[in-house]
Amino acid sequence: MADVLDINDAVDIDVEDDGEQSVLRLKDKVVRRKGRGFGPGEGREHEKIRGYESIEAGEHGDEPGPQKSVEGWILFVTSVHEEATEDDLNEKFSEYGTIKNISINLDRRTGFLKGYALIEYGSYEDAASAREALNGSALLGQTIGVDWCFVKGAKKSKKRSRRH
């Protein structure tokens, strides 16, 4: 884990004049921090400095339903024929909007598709229309299932459980 050294105040050091005193003053001003987030007393200042990206809670923020990933809206396609290719999926799903990414996993032993794929759209409308139209449709003679990859569940109620 990397250490981060912060110097609290600007220190004007003249090494020739003070010698060890200036080094001790510098050491007093240095704060050593380890780990992620720098502890409970630091607040969230490190996030402001680094400028992390975040997804704003918008139209689909707090309610149950599909959830946007960092890149876009991802559909999970199941029961995909083992001999299907990326071009087959692209041809079928590109009718409903611009596809940002297609991810297919192959079985190492056979080299065939594992039976599922992830398809990413940039907008919610494109992904929703593809999901509605293609769920239960046929691809290479096999019925596929299309659903959201990331789904935010209903909020859990806070019930206390009693142990006897």
Automatic annotation (TrEMBL):
<keyword id="KW-0813">Transport</keyword>
<dbReference type="GO" id="GO:0003729">
    <property type="term" value="F:mRNA binding"/>
</dbReference>
<dbReference type="InterPro" id="IPR000504">
    <property type="entry name" value="RRM_dom"/>
</dbReference>
<dbReference type="GO" id="GO:0006417">
    <property type="term" value="P:regulation of translation"/>
</dbReference>
<keyword id="KW-0694">RNA-binding</keyword>
<keyword id="KW-0810">Translation regulation</keyword>
<protein>
    <recommendedName>
        <fullName>RNA-binding protein 8A</fullName>
    </recommendedName>
</protein>
<dbReference type="InterPro" id="IPR033744">
    <property type="entry name" value="RRM_RBM8"/>
</dbReference>
<keyword id="KW-0507">mRNA processing</keyword>
<dbReference type="GO" id="GO:0006397">
    <property type="term" value="P:mRNA processing"/>
</dbReference>
<feature type="domain" description="RRM">
    <location>
        <begin position="73"/>
        <end position="151"/>
    </location>
</feature>
<dbReference type="GO" id="GO:0005737">
    <property type="term" value="C:cytoplasm"/>
</dbReference>
<dbReference type="InterPro" id="IPR012677">
    <property type="entry name" value="Nucleotide-bd_a/b_plait_sf"/>
</dbReference>
<comment type="function">
    <text>Core component of the splicing-dependent multiprotein exon junction complex (EJC) deposited at splice junctions on mRNAs.</text>
</comment>
<comment type="subunit">
    <text>Heterodimer with MAGOH. Part of the mRNA splicing-dependent exon junction complex (EJC) complex; the core complex contains CASC3, EIF4A3, MAGOH and RBM8A.</text>
</comment>
<keyword id="KW-0963">Cytoplasm</keyword>
<dbReference type="GO" id="GO:0008380">
    <property type="term" value="P:RNA splicing"/>
</dbReference>
<dbReference type="GO" id="GO:0016607">
    <property type="term" value="C:nuclear speck"/>
</dbReference>
<keyword id="KW-0539">Nucleus</keyword>
<dbReference type="InterPro" id="IPR008111">
    <property type="entry name" value="RNA-bd_8"/>
</dbReference>
<keyword id="KW-0509">mRNA transport</keyword>
<dbReference type="GO" id="GO:0051028">
    <property type="term" value="P:mRNA transport"/>
</dbReference>
<comment type="similarity">
    <text>Belongs to the RBM8A family.</text>
</comment>
<keyword id="KW-0508">mRNA splicing</keyword>
<dbReference type="InterPro" id="IPR035979">
    <property type="entry name" value="RBD_domain_sf"/>
</dbReference>
<dbReference type="Pfam" id="PF00076">
    <property type="entry name" value="RRM_1"/>
</dbReference>
